[in-house]
Amino acid sequence: MPDEELMKKLVSLCKRLGFVYQSGEIYGGLQSAWDYGPLGVELKRNIENSWWNAMVRTRNDVYGVDTAIITHPEVWRASGHVEHFHDPLVDCRSCKARFRADQVEGRTCPDCGGELTEPRDFGLMFKTFMGPVEDEAAVAFLRPETCQTIFADFRNIVNSMRPGLPFGVAQIGKAFRNEITARNFIFRSREFEQMEMEYFCRPGDAAQLMEYWISERLSWYAKLGIRPSNLRLRPHGQAELAHYASACTDIEYTFPFVQGGYGELEGIACRTDYDLKAHMAASGQDLTFIDQAAGEKVVPHVIETSGGVGRTFLAVLLDSYYEDVIEGRERVVLRLSPELAPVKLAILPLSRKLEPEALAVADILRPLWPAEFDVTGSIGKRYRRMDEIGTPFCITYDFDSQQDASVTIRERDSLGQIRVPVERLVEVLSGIFARGWPD
Ligand code: ATP
């Protein structure tokens, strides 16, 4: 199970190697705002692409969209967010620290032991103003979740795509919440990315489809390389359910810093017909669906899968971080799957003298895979840097390569090596990326 010590090492690795930086660091840092660096942006995109492939590209029944962040204010009135999207907040009378009332036990401050105030409601949506006048008529909201605009676009999507039931609409994008206690690195920030899918179905099919999606989503996390033993399912009790949900199960991961040991990665909820009905009532528009197969008009029920990119990114890093000893030397290695690794190949000439020939090999590979060329420092040091950023395969061009026109491929985890003629390199690497390292 990941521990606090590991978390500290990971935060420092993220900064040092270019995965995640604190935003505005030169000005003292903006609390809970994070920037993804050159390696982080690749890992994040690889996670998003994996989700998009699993949820949209490889399926016939799910469409993708990308909707506006600054949204019509009526969307959030109709959805209930303006009225309900608050957290109860308590302040410490002594040290002035703020907490979410549901995250502290009793009436004393977890930091200093001082007395806490009565809970007050704290609106979580970021407000902004459209146009030149800052008055109530110009108020707009940054979306606090990506799914609501899918409901607002429902009729357009149905008219464009003419789907039958069941079908889904998926989106990856930014969401904004003015969290009271934004902390724990990228686990809880005020600006974050969600990967959400709304699956519209006949009301009678909802319970069974909820089970189906829980199992699909769990296997996606396992495929990413997150250990199933670090995941658990947590069904919500009746009292905990959000105002729109008839059932909800969270997929949780053993985040080391979360009270109780587990934190939410993703929520899978049955939202019934709550949202479509709410938008019908507020807009006066007909959002019913003509179910051709059943020959009737229905308001579909919805199963939602709602996960966070940042939390998945963090869980992937926690589960791929290893320290081991090879040939008497300690190394840190990120055992990222080749699909997720920010850099897939490193081309390393053994000596500077071999740089031109090794560059010619890099030129063959670069259009096909994200590859780095590195000639600085000892070969051992270069291998260790590649291990630390999770590069699965290093290709070494040595003095024999000049004679036999072959290079060595080294695999990060097993440290296995194979010698391959340059003219067969693309074919061999394609096989390895498709089927894994040969045993
Ligand atoms: P929590 O109880 O941790 O505040 P939530 O139940 O409010 O989470 P949802 O509204 O279900 O979260 O949002 C869906 C997903 O979006 C979460 O599972 C999480 O991965 C991600 N998420 C929500 N809030 C944040 C945040 N402040 N920072 C990063 N990711 C977030």
What do these coordinates show?
This protein is α+β, with helices and mostly antiparallel strands. The chain folds into two domains: 37-79 and 144-317, BirA Bifunctional Protein, domain 2; 343-435, 3-Layer(aba) Sandwich (Rossmann fold). Helices cover 31% and strands 28% of the residues. The protein contains 13 helices and 24 strands. It has helices at 4-17, 38-57, 73-78, 81-84, 148-152, 154-161, 206-224, 274-283, 309-320, 355-365, 379-388, 399-404, 425-435, and strands at residues 20-22, 34-36, 62-64, 70-71, 86-91, 98-100, 120-123, 127-129, 139-142, 167-176, 191-201, 231-235, 247-253, 263-272, 289-291, 296-298, 301-308, 321-326, 329-334, 345-349, 371-373, 393-397, 406-411, 417-421. A hairpin with a 6-residue loop joins strand 5 and strand 6. The two termini are 29 Å apart. The site of adenosine-5'-triphosphate (ATP) has 15 residues, from strand 11, strand 14, strand 17 and helix 9.
Provide keyphrases for this structure.
Rossmann fold, 2 domains, globular, BirA Bifunctional Protein, domain 2, 7-stranded mixed beta sheet, single chain, 13 helices, alpha+beta, 439 residues
